[in-house]
Amino acid sequence: MSIFATKWEKIALQALKEPKTAPFGASKSIGFPYLTLRMDISILIPVYRWDSSRLVADLKKQAEALHISYEIIEADDERLQFGRAKVRNFLASKAKGELLLFIDCDAAVDNDEYLKRYLDVADKAPVVCGGCHHADKLPSPSVSLRWRYEKRADKKRAAKYRNRHPYAQFSTFNFLIRHDVFSDIQFDESCEGYGHEDTLFGAELKEKKIPVLHIDNPLRHDGLETNGRYLAKTREALRNLRRKQTELTGFSPLLRTYHMLVRLGLDERLANFFEAHRDWFEKMMQKKNPSLFLFKIYKLGYYCHI
Fold this sequence. Notes:
Layout: H1 8-17, E1 27-31, E2 39-47, H2 53-65, E3 70-76, H3 77-80, H4 84-94, E4 97-103, E5 107-108, H5 114-121, E6 127-129, E7 132-133, H6 144-154, H7 159-162, E8 174-178, H8 179-185, H9 197-207, E9 212-214, E10 219-221, H10 227-243, H11 245-248, H12 253-264, H13 267-284, H14 292-305
Parallel strand pairs: 2-3, 2-4, 6-9, 7-10
Antiparallel strand pairs: 1-3, 4-8, 5-10, 6-8
């Protein structure tokens, strides 16, 4: 990783002269087949403890084959310590493209027409989500909880399902947005740590009545956490959900269940049950084949508890 530069304009001028990787946050590379200051697309990748070099290489190869003007900007958030929302806003503020393509660093391109599919529909909606999928085989027993959870979710990640609830199904993992539209919304930087910055963004898109189109253009998600780490991130996301409960009512299935428990007067009972059995729940989540039903009870119990 290169050292963060404080004067972006100087870096951009250097990249204009030499269209190759230049120091910027993590890195910046620009392709200029037409040597023009107008940029078709900016590919923005927030990086956190992941080697994204293969992802960048695959994206550059596709962009150059399409003969478009493009840039790929990465920002190393382990170094910047901005957080998931702020680092994405930061990347967009440095982008020159008319279109912004946000991709998580632990994604893998396994489709030779990935960029082309986005460009083919870029005029259909101001926001387009491509989706994600996961490896068919369990990579390691240590990541069994996240893998099992995601593989079940993959069954309903086809565009035909996501388009039924386009705002609730919005995800930051892999999406295209017009630069002017993003500038009007941006991510809510009060959402700290992991989780629900995408849910809040989807809610904002709905409030502003900005159309969202879901297409089948997935990237493979390779960055699965160990079971213990995933539990910790889940708790962090639930704390964000609690802080943003008012804004996210109607966007979270867990909140719908929670409100039902409150109406029935069962939320305190579940909170007490969770507190008494938390260690057992977490032990069960560490197994090679953890129960997704128990995981659901764990999340709901923790939410009632906090």
